[in-house]
Design brief:
This protein is α/β, with parallel strands linked by helices. It has a domain of 103 residues: Nucleotidyltransferase, domain 5 (2-Layer Sandwich). Helix content is 28%, strand content 27%. It has 4 helices and 7 strands. The strands form 2 sheets. A 5-stranded mixed β-sheet has the order 3-2-1-6-7. Strands 4-5 form a two-stranded antiparallel ribbon. β2 and β3 form a beta hairpin. α2 crosses α3.
């Protein structure tokens, strides 16, 4: 019987990487080519133009229009969507049997929305923690009780 391959997604809204777990005592290994990042920007860095002007519904006044969505949040949601699409492709190819997601709370919510039903069925556990800045050897303690690292 083949041992199940467990992938661990470590992510936030601007960085993500996949680690693989091949069984107890073998630790976690980074998977080459499955690391993503975008530069973290604030909304004011993205929205450099002045807001548009709108007419008042009553009277002749005009006022500045606020954007309907926060640009930084939209950018991070698009980043999560692209990572989720890649995970979905790998899941359909049978690259892994189980998935553990450790992500910052907002990114975790976005992953829940973006993953396909097939990938969601492979999710073993979720951690609402941003572990993206921890080196791989320090991650083991965060997964005790979920997988035998």
């Amino acid at each position: 019987m083949k041992k199940p391959i467990t992938w661990i997604l470590i992510a936030n809204g601007t960085q993500a990487r996949i680690l693989e777990h091949n069984g107890p005592g073998k630790g976690l290994t980074s998977i080459s080519g499955l690391e993503w990042s975008i530069a973290p920007l604030q909304s004011q860095d993205i929205n450099t133009d002045k807001p548009g002007r709108g007419f008042s519904s009553a009277g002749a006044g005009r006022s500045a229009m606020e954007p309907r969505t926060d640009a930084a949040e939209h950018r991070e949601a698009e980043f999560v969507r692209s990572v989720a699409q890649e995970l979905d492709r790998k899941a359909l190819d049978g690259a892994f049997d189980r998935l553990v997601i450790a992500a910052a709370p907002i990114a975790l919510g976005n992953f829940r929305k973006q993953l396909s039903d097939h990938s969601k069925k492979l999710v073993l556990a979720e951690l609402d923690k941003d572990l993206t800045n921890l080196p791989t050897p320090q991650l083991n303690k965060h997964f005790d009780g979920i997988i035998a690292v």
